[in-house]
Amino acid sequence: MITDGPTATSFLMTREDAPRFWLVDSLWSVLASADTTGGALTVLEQLMPARSGPPPHVHERLHEYFYLLDGEIRFQLGTEIQTAKTGAVVSVPPNTVHGFAVVSDTARVLNLYTPGGFTEQISYLGAPATELRLPLPEEQPPASADRQSAYFSRSAELNTQRWLGPDEADDLLADQRDAPEIR
């Protein structure tokens, strides 16, 4: 049989056995990559501290979903702010301006992308995590210039994410990420 693209494989993955990375201030566990799902889906588990979250951006090709396993996160979806708590599902269709900021002390999220993709950012720019916990600052050395360049090339090739300039969208959550620690 001839196939034109990646093929899905049967697998069982636990969070303890998943490839995991520390990136920025978070723990990312790759539970299912596009490679293992034939390109159909990516499933990540994120553990994030208070105030963690990206500024406004879009995924031009990917539909992103968040399932909050634990915690509270304030989301920017277009020009609206919505707060999600444990048990909530957030859907972000392709080309939707979005960002978020963790409100609780920590948040644990199941993050899904269809079609599969996005793990390049984590594996190219993150440091391999040795434990299932948030990273310490010294455990997150910056990625080399070559690694960053490779990631940006691959990301553009896959059309997975584009950061927005200030003229494209307001960062409605900026004050949430810059606020004093929430306790």
Note the topology.
Elements: E1 20-23, E2 26-32, E3 42-49, E4 57-58, E5 63-70, E6 72-77, E7 80-85, E8 89-92, E9 98-102, E10 106-114, H1 119-125, E11 127-128, H2 145-158, E12 162-163, H3 174-178
Antiparallel strand pairs: 1-2, 1-11, 2-3, 3-10, 4-12, 5-8, 5-10, 6-7, 6-9
Helix pairs in contact: 1-2
Task: Please characterize this protein's 3D structure.
- With 183 residues, this protein is α+β, with helices and mostly antiparallel strands.
- It has 3 helices and 12 strands, in the order E-E-E-E-E-E-E-E-E-E-H-E-H-E-H.
- The chain has helices spanning 119-125, 145-158, 174-178; strands spanning 20-23, 26-32, 42-49, 57-58, 63-70, 72-77, 80-85, 89-92, 98-102, 106-114, 127-128, 162-163.
- The chain has a 7-stranded antiparallel beta sheet with strand order 8-5-10-3-2-1-11, covered by helices on one side.
- A hairpin with a 2-residue loop joins strand 1 (20-23) and strand 2.
- Helix 1 runs antiparallel to helix 2 (145-158).
Which features characterize this protein?
alpha+beta, seven-stranded antiparallel β-sheet, 3 helices, 12 strands, globular
In percent, how much strand structure appears in the residues? 25-35%
Instruction: Give a count of the beta strands, DSSP E runs of length 2 or more.
Output: 12
Question: What's the end-to-end separation, in Å?
Answer: 57 Å
Which structural class do the helices and strands define?
alpha+beta
Helix share bin: 10-25%
Task: Tell me the number of helical segments per DSSP (H or I, 4 or more residues long).
Answer: 3
Element pattern in H and E: EEEEEEEEEEHEHEH
Low-pLDDT residue intervals, each spanning 5 or more residues? none
Widest sheet: strand ordering: 8-5-10-3-2-1-11
User: What's the Cα radius of gyration?
Assistant: 16 Å
Oligomer: single chain
Largest sheet geometry: 7 strands, antiparallel
On the 0 to 100 scale, the average pLDDT is 85
Shape by Cα distribution: globular
